[in-house]
Amino acid sequence: MATITVETGTGSASSNSYISEADFTTYATDRGITLTGDTDVLLIQAMDYIEAQSFKGNKYTDAQALQWPRSSVYIDGYVIDVDEIPTLLKDALCEVAIGVDAGNNPLLTEDRATKKEKVGDIEVEYMDGARNSTYLKAAESKLSKLLKAGSGGISARVIRG
Questions:
Q1: Number of continuous H segments (helices) and E segments (strands) in the chain
Q2: How far is 73 from 137, CA to CA, in rounded Å?
Q3: Cβ pair 20, 3 in contact under 8 A
Q4: Could you give the CA distance from residue 42 to residue 38 in angstroms, rounded to a whole number?
Q5: Does the residue 91 lie in any domain?
Q6: What is this structure's pTM?
Q7: Considering the chain, what is the average pLDDT of its residues?
Q8: Which residues, other chains included, contact 71 with Cβ-Cβ below 8 Å and sequence gap of 6+?
Q9: More exposed terminus of the chain, fewer Cβ within 10 Å: N or C?
Q10: Three-state secondary structure call for residue 147
């Protein structure tokens, strides 16, 4: 069983999560989701994915254990204080952990994509170019404003006036 140590914006050298187990449970419960796994394990597995992202700005100190807090980060034109852990990041962590609990860990090794499969009278054929894993859209939408352009599975939209 893992012990969760929450990063509060101090740049701790021993933190391993952006939220507590209680906050994660509340997030899920507020959305009508019943968690089945150990919340500490789900958070650690979700953190593996979150920490692999290419975030905007720079780590605030070289001694901190996690990618946040960060400096030089702007969201919607406003600077994020260097001692702030954005709510979008915390929510994205919850969404990834919920996905992991549902069997959709974005870091698991993927099998080959199935083109056609027939078992008895049941036949499945996936569209060409279809993902061979579940895309955690709720998590990715929350992360999109925090990631560098062109990183991860996030795409940018250009609007020309």
A1: 4, 6
A2: 23
A3: no
A4: 6
A5: yes
A6: 0.75
A7: 85
A8: 57, 58, 60, 82
A9: C
A10: strand
DSSP conformation letters of 3-48: PP-B--SS--SS--BSS-HHHHHHHHHHTT----S-HHHHHHHHHH
Residue range 31-41, pLDDT digits in tens: 999 999 999 99
The answer to whether residue 154 scores a pLDDT higher than 50 is: no
Residue 72: domain span: 21-143
Number of structural domains, the chain? 1
> How many Å apart are CA 24 and CA 45, to the nearest integer?
13
Question: CB–CB of 24/94 below 8 Å?
Answer: yes
User: Residue 2 has what pLDDT?
Assistant: 80
51-79: average pLDDT:
95
Closest CA to 51 of 154, 147, 158, 149: 147
Residues 33/84, Cβ–Cβ less than 8 Å: no
- 151 assigned to some structural domain: no
